Amino acid sequence: MNKIRPIVSSVTSFDVAKLAGVSRSAVSRAFTPGASISDKTRKKVKRAAFELGYSVNLLARGLNKQRTDLVGMIASGMSNPYRSEQIDALAKRLVHEGFRPMLFCIDEGMNESQLLSILLNYQVSGVVITSDAPPAEICEECARMHVPLALVDRLDDLPFVDRINGDNRKGGRMAAESLIAAGRRNLIAVKPQKVGYSGRARIAAFVERAHEASIEAKVLGVVASEYNGGMEAADYIVSRRHEKLGIFCPSDTLALGLLDALRSQHGVAIPEEMSLIGYDDIPQASWAFAELTTIKQSVEEFAKVTVDVLKARINEPDAAPKNQIVSVNLVLRKTV
Predict the structure, then answer these.
(1) How far apart are CA 281 and CA 44, in angstroms?
(2) Which residues form the HTH lacI-type domain (predicted)?
(3) Residues with Cβ within 8 Å of residue 315, at least 6 apart in sequence
(4) What is the CATH architecture assignment of 65-165+299-324?
(5) Does the predicted TM-score (pTM) go above 0.90?
(6) Bridge partner residues of 126 (DSSP)
(7) Do the domains at 65-165+299-324 and 168-296 have one common CATH topology?
(8) What residues does 53 pair with on adjacent strands?
(9) What residues are paired with 293 via a beta bridge?
(10) Is the N or C terminus of the chain more exposed, i.e. has fewer CB atoms within 10 Å?
């Protein structure tokens, strides 16, 4: 039977070094990702640390380095499947690269000064902000305090701040081209009232490509967002069901709401009567009830590019700002 180790709060790296028979610097290297140390020595140190109940004081280590290995992740709309996938992939990538992510889920009522105080007091190595929801003031203050900052799916133009976006123009144009190739000559893009930068860019590119083909593309505004916005759009679209419409939604959740309403409430056959394309390729888009054709942007690729950009900014804080574009591709299923 394994013995239960008592928790000893006063154990230090000196104690671990003594038990393991190594130097204190070897203990430090054993707990530092990527540090030069043999596997044999690392295992000796980890075994001694386990026996003593020792853990690294990351905050104290950060104070000695003038920064910690913590990275703040600021996000909103976590109920959106794509956003939660994106944050999950980003957190895993940060851990893989030796960082320790701290997630802040914010809404419009959150105290901005409180959030900034937390980030700065923890002396984070950097901050990643996703989506349009976090106020621009947070971005500006991080930039002013010279905290390395990466903006994902945002348009803010700030000094020494890097941006990572999907190729929204390519995705929007690709959606239009797919619908046109399917023989659709009456196109509609559904636009929620609270649409973010990425959604606006996708719709603009969709309309642009349609006009290049001398095809009219109507932008249908809806009040609600995501799934409910798609449900709301159904009434208007059904009124034109005999026009062989081609419909584009700038997110899969919006498209799934529309798809559900058209089929269950109005008996519309898709793709026989009309075609529908979403965006993001969330897991639900591939489920049997939907088989939604969509534009895919890889959350893993987004995470890799974002962390690479953030690491480069940490190492070269005065480098020129980067604007990285992550490619997208069409996933053809059964709604076109």
Answers:
(1) 46
(2) 11-65
(3) none
(4) 3-Layer(aba) Sandwich (3.40)
(5) no
(6) 71
(7) yes
(8) none
(9) 277
(10) N
Whether residue 82 has pLDDT greater than 90: yes
Lookup result for tokens 């905290």: 147
Amino acid at 97: E
- 95 token code pair: 């851990």
Task: Copy the structure tokens of residue 142.
Answer: 């991080």
**In the CATH scheme, what architecture does the domain 168-296 have?**
3-Layer(aba) Sandwich (3.40)
CB of 82 within 8 A of CB of 227? no
pLDDT in tens, 117-163: 777 777 788 999 886 655 677 777 777 777 888 999 887 677 778 99
Q: What tokens does 58 get?
A: 């990351």
Structure tokens at 216: 């009219």
| Percent helix, strand and coil across the chain, each to the nearest 5 | 45, 20, 35
Task: Fill in the amino acid letter for 42.
Answer: R
Instruction: Enter the tokens of residue 167.
Output: 């190729």
> Distance (Å, rounded) from C-alpha 291 to C-alpha 333?
5
For 65, the 3-state DSSP assignment is helix
How many whole angstroms from its chain centre is CA 229? Answer: 22
- Compute the half-sphere exposure of residue 129: CA atoms within 13 Å on the CB side of its CA: 26
Q: What is the pLDDT of residue 29?
A: 86
> In the chain, where are the structural domains located?
13-56, 65-165+299-324, 168-296
